[in-house]
Amino acid sequence: MTNVGLPESLARALAVVGDNLDQQKLVGREIEQVITGLHELAPERVSTIEPAIADQARLRRWRRDYPTLVRLFSPKFTDGDQLDRIPGLEFLFLFHRDGFLREAALNRISGALPSAFQFATIVWQLNDWVKPVQEAAMKCAARCFPDTAAKIIAKASFSLLPRQRSWGRWTVERGVLDKLLCRPDVAREMAILFQTETSGPVSTSLRYALRGDRLDTHLDHLARQALQPAVRALAAQCLIEGVATWHEGWEWKWVDKSRGLQRRVPISRSRSLITKADISSVIQAGVNDRSSVVRRAALQGLISRVDDVENASVAAIALLNDKSPSVRERAQFIMRRATADSDTR
Please, which residues bridge with residue 243 across strands? Predict the structure, then answer.
């Protein structure tokens, strides 16, 4: 049994619940501490912390089978009995090793979800290896997600977006999360997170969030005000190119059929933005940005849209002596092309 990654107070409460479940005694008020502790967990940890929760609470598939005589004098309660009697136990039993109990727990959950971790747990069940559990999770999502606060959905989705690509059992279930990101209130909360977060794969999350068009109207603000340079650079790139691109998966391509050699190559998808940006203004803001990552993205965009921007060489001149080699190279390229164009006229 391990409690790796679990807060100490939560680990203790889970252990007490596990003792009661093992002895087939009714779980007491400690379930309240367990539920509070689960709600406080970070949503991105749902897939990695699941084994620790199940082990610490001893959510096993099999329990000791007591003789009938023992049950007559000392009532014993199966995990199913406990689920029927103890309010809140359904949130813990989402991590149960028994698929029937995971399904039963999902069927008992309704209404707005109270935390980002709880939301992430339901999303995680959409990727469950047991098909009836997946179906129960879909029904649970239909009952709960529409009533769940936008802040909770945004916080959970923010961390789940980069990870869901690796969930191999997703089919139509993936559309549940994508549909939520189309809600205007969720998009606003997501935009705030993309602007204010300073650590983690924020730009990767933004790239996946841009599969839908609800964030398009927020890109100009993100290109100028986001705290993480990679987010400002990505937002500027999308605005300049007028296209959002994301990684969709992998596929095999032949290197040499005669020798049976193949290699995996990434699959990319893209769509056009629904908003039209002032490209010159976006590039100028990027050129003046304090981060070389953003300045490089602005110049790269300028290279691709040089015919659409007046006085492109003026923006490049200011960066000919930039401290970043990659920025200087792009500025020099723009100047060489501007010189060549003038010579041909």
Answer: 272
Entry pTM: 0.83
Pairwise CA distance, residues 178 & 44, whole Å = 17
Identity (one letter) of the amino acid at 159?
Answer: S
2 Rama class: left (phi>0) / alpha (psi -120 to 50) / beta: beta
User: Which position has the token pair 């923006």?
Assistant: 315
Distance CA 177, CA 140 (A): 13
Closest CA to 104 of 146, 56, 139, 58: 139
Residue 272's SS3 state is strand
Q: Can you tell me the distance from the alpha carbon of 302 to that of 300, in angstroms, rounded to the nearest whole number?
A: 5
Distance CA 291, CA 324 (A): 10
User: Which two tokens mark 294?
Assistant: 């953003």
Q: Which amino acid is at 219?
A: L
- Residue 217 has a CB neighbour count (10 Å cut-off) of 15
CA dihedral sign, ordered 300, 267, 269, 209: negative
Hey, is 41 helix, strand or coil?
Answer: coil
260-285 pLDDT, tens digit each: 899 999 888 999 999 888 888 999 89
Q: Are 227 and 197 in contact (CB under 8 A)?
A: yes
Measured in Å, how far apart are the chain's first and last C-alpha atoms? 77
Burial class (CB in 10 A: 0-12, 13-18, 19+), 223: buried
Burial of 175-202, coded b for 16+ CB within 10 Å and e otherwise, reads ebbeebbebeebbbbbbebbbebeeebb
pLDDT of residue 294: 95
Cβ atoms of residues 244 and 210 within 8 Å: yes
What is the per-residue pLDDT for 1? Answer: 45
Q: How confident is the model over 314-320, as a mean pLDDT?
A: 84
DSSP 147-205: GS-HHHHHHHHHHHTTTGGG-TT-STTHHHHHHHTTSHHHHHHHHHHHHH--SSSHHHH
The residue ranges of DSSP E strands in the chain, in sequence order, are 243-256, 261-272
d(CA 27, CA 11): 15
Q: Quick count: other Cβ atoms within 10 Å of Cβ 105?
A: 23
